[in-house]
């Protein structure tokens, strides 16, 4: 993405981004997770930096290189860790972009020792994790913009709009989970409360750039 010749619309702004999956421990050697690669969130972090922002990236485990040129990078493991890291940071940021594929459930108890295969059937009890986006939507500081993602496999726009209302996000970036996860490209719908939906398609860096430009427009109001 060539941004060299352009101005830096995010200069003076602070952007907090979550990215990647989380891992929920079952025992010391096993976990529950999902197919998120982290590429979308890392692209947003890089592009936000190039557009002039001060950037903090809170990331679950990914295979991606740490973007050394951003301002702060926090590596987390579980949904609970990610929530704690966000809680510590979010107040100082202007734009909060919750791109991570946070696990919705975590083992109620994770075993201290490796679970042995002594039983024919094993039942795992899971408990809901804290919803970070929902917390931010309901606790945002004046002027803060909260951007959520929605990974859907059906009724993409309708389901995502419901998430926007429920979590009080300013924008929801909706995508087809099966198409987006792991890929270098993405097609997303930017869904606002009372503005027409915008469709963006392209490489994840291009999507990131267009998304950040649209979010910038919201900041000015
Ligand atoms: N999210 C979050 N904390 C969670 C779960 C999700 O902050 N514990 C955020 C994601 O980062 C994303 C948004 O909520 O920005 C939507 O995630 P998604 O999985 O699409 O929706 P859920 O609300 O978790 O609902 P469901 O998985 O049932 O569709
Ligand atoms: Ca979910």
UniProtKB/TrEMBL annotation:
This is Coenzyme A biosynthesis bifunctional protein CoaBC. GO terms for biological process: coenzyme A biosynthetic process; pantothenate catabolic process. It comes from the Bacteria. Pathway: Cofactor biosynthesis; coenzyme A biosynthesis; CoA from (R)-pantothenate: step 2/5; Cofactor biosynthesis; coenzyme A biosynthesis; CoA from (R)-pantothenate: step 3/5. Catalyzes two steps in the biosynthesis of coenzyme A. In the first step cysteine is conjugated to 4'-phosphopantothenate to form 4-phosphopantothenoylcysteine, in the latter compound is decarboxylated to form 4'-phosphopantotheine. Its EC number is 4.1.1.36, 6.3.2.5. Keywords: Decarboxylase, Flavoprotein, FMN, Ligase, Lyase, Magnesium, Metal-binding, Multifunctional enzyme. In the C-terminal section; belongs to the PPC synthetase family. Residues 15-221 are annotated as: Phosphopantothenate--cysteine ligase. GO terms for molecular function: FMN binding; metal ion binding; phosphopantothenate--cysteine ligase activity; phosphopantothenoylcysteine decarboxylase activity. It comes from Fervidobacterium changbaicum. It catalyses: (R)-4'-phosphopantothenate + L-cysteine + CTP = N-[(R)-4-phosphopantothenoyl]-L-cysteine + CMP + diphosphate + H(+); N-[(R)-4-phosphopantothenoyl]-L-cysteine + H(+) = (R)-4'-phosphopantetheine + CO2. Binds 1 FMN per subunit. The chain holds residues 171 to 391 of 391 of the full protein. Residues 10-217 form the DNA/pantothenate metabolism flavoprotein C-terminal domain. CTP binds at residues 104, 114, 130-133, 149, 163, 167.
